[in-house]
User: Fold this.
Amino acid sequence: MGRFILKRTLYGLLVLLGVISINFFLFNILPGDPARMMLGQRADITSVEAINKDLGRDKPLLTQFFNYLNDLSPVSFHNDVDKNSYWFFDAVKYSSSVKLLHFSEENVLVLKKPYLRKSYQSKRNVSEILYDGFINTIILALVAMAFAVIIGVIIGIVCAIYKNRFIDRLALVFSVLGMSLPSFFAAILNAWIFAFVLVGFTGLNMTGSLYSVDDFGRGEYLDLKNLILPAFTLGIRPLAIIVELTRNSLLDVLSQDYIRTARAKGLSNFRIITKHALKNAMNPVITAVSGWLASLLAGAVFVEYIFDWKGIGVVIVNSLEKYDFPVIMGAVLFISIILVITNIIVDIAYGLLDPRVRIQ
Assistant:
């Protein structure tokens, strides 16, 4: 099992290296000069050259790429003496760092937090900007995924038990509709129906984040009702997928010989499904959950923007409007890391549920 986990981890690291490479070269060959964007109408040649030197953009692209990898790596190499060196170790920039080993008087090996650079616009560390939106986005994605998994598995089981009956056909119609509905359109539709047409019945707001501000005494307070509409909207599509997967996989398992043997022994349908069939039918659902969790983080861009949910989606939209490339690169890298880690966890879960996966 240890070899299996190590193999999957190495595959994940290779995928992450590919994402980092594409991410860096894509945003560094795009037209536009960040220095001129930062200076605006005050831009002159001297100032532009000074800022590009400070950003390291006066170096060859390949040198910039290796420096970017060095900044992202938890273990990195730096010059500890020459402050004018492109590889200089700045203790302020590389926070929470520890010098592990000196190779010479100048070169040092450092253990540090990954450095995602600074925003071109706000001059804040990208990690701080992403962290501000991370909590709201991960809460939104997890609640949406929990809603989709719990409701989807229950409906899928019901559809498998009552195959080809009215409730099964009705659920399948709504599943197809849910899979066909784009998240941005579903967000607008849900906001209009539940927060405008039925606002007297639901009491929900069209926009709002995890915390609301009351100017008349309460100040900032936790407002969980603002989570309902965006989480419901994000969960519609994975819910539809999980219903289909659970139904089809459970029907396939229920046709197996060992299930007929269990029925012949007099076991109840409830025990057969919960103790024997459901566990073996969950592999496709686990795959769907792993892919959709990362997809929810990406799809949350539209939903967060429409509902004004202060998460990474809003950060990405604002950064795209301002051509703030370090923030966009950091957000893409963040979502990719979530996807890779999720896939590794799912592969390990496969190995625990089905030993044949480890052998293969």
